[in-house]
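Q: Give me the 3D complex with iron/sulfur cluster.
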Amino acid sequence: MQTNFSLAQLADPHVAESEKILRKCVHCGFCTATCPTYVTLGNELDSPRGRIYLIKDMLENGRPADKEIVTHIDRCLSCLACMTTCPSGVNYMHLVDHARAHIQETYHRPLLDRLTRAMLAFVLPYPKRFRAALKLAKLGKPFIGLFEKIPALKPLGAMLKLTPASIPAASPMASPGVHAGQGTRKGRVAILTGCAQSVLDPAINETTISLLTRLDVEVVVPPGEGCCGALVHHMGREEAALASARQNVDAWIRAIEQGGLDAIVITASGCGTTIKDYGFMLRLDPAYADKAARVSALAKDVTEYLAALDLPEPVRKPGTVVAYHSACSMQHGQKITRQPKELLAKAGFIVREPREGHLCCGSAGTYNILQSEISAKLRDRKVKNIEATGASIVATGNIGCITQIASAARMPVVHTVKLLDWAYGGPRPEGVPEERLVAAE
Ligand code: SF4
Ligand code: SF4
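A: Here is the predicted complex, encoded as structure tokens.
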């Protein structure tokens, strides 16, 4: 694509980076076919190609964001299906991240939208605040219908709908410390405790620590870890996202210096995509660029790490049919497609992949709150495809997808690591009835 940025504009490294990305786009439109919002809404401006034109126009003319561009960029899920499809290697992720930061700096959103976004950024990345907010949200549940009728209050209604009926107790395993492997040490990893997942389903990390230590891997929970920054990053709150990234980089570099790390294990693929991008996000910060690149290189999804281990034979032979839902951040963001399915199959599960597996389930961070109508359409489409597999259980590797799909599916939805842990001798995952996990023998 031809671009016409001035030399003065290109002196801004963010603009220079976006210009490089724009020039790679050849307008072919292949990406439109796999874009969930184009498939759902049928509007070119809600396709990757349409958004790329809008972003180009905004950046090239150096103008503030307007209502039109904000509408179409807000509707983008950042699912990155377009990056998987694009034959020209257009890095849409970095382009839309830049556009979102520009929108945040230059666009004055309506009051309620501003308040909702500020509240999400204040609450979600902090487990204690999030836990308190979930307790409070239970009081608001009777008003969901009312909120859904008032357009400006729809996000509040969507948020209340997603509030779980019960909130698990905080996990002691999330506290800083070292969990030693059971036998001769085969590896040493740090685990990201994260934010929302540690409140909604602390058993995911507990299970991961239990499985890894049974496999003789030492697991460190370094002091100072926090939210990866993805939630605010996707809202264009660049400084907050970079502050989270720096905090985590410091925590993990300390852990590396104190005893070495083979990997930083991440159990939410949305966080993994962002942490693997820390090197890029902090490239302009001389104090952090090298350290962040080192951290990104060590970041591994738990299934990526497990697949590289020499796993023993599973204790149980389940023979259970599992529908594997590949989160967008897993398949498009991190290009991890093979390992989770192979691990499940090796553990004795029969793995089925739902049709339209490339399409987002509509969770996408805060998308199911801020764009609840499109999100619900995508969720229902996803659940229909999952149920058509005839599986007993859904496995996936991202807490956002688990919450989203579980809100409509008539079968248990669990993190992949919980099924693996059970097959390798761990307890039955909570919420999965015995009959859904019938062992073959
Ligand atoms: S990230 Fe997803 S929703 Fe956004 S343009 Fe690309 S394919 Fe479409
Ligand atoms: S597939 Fe790639 S090159 Fe083609 S229009 Fe989409 S982003 Fe541009």
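A quick observation: The longest strand covers residues 187-191.
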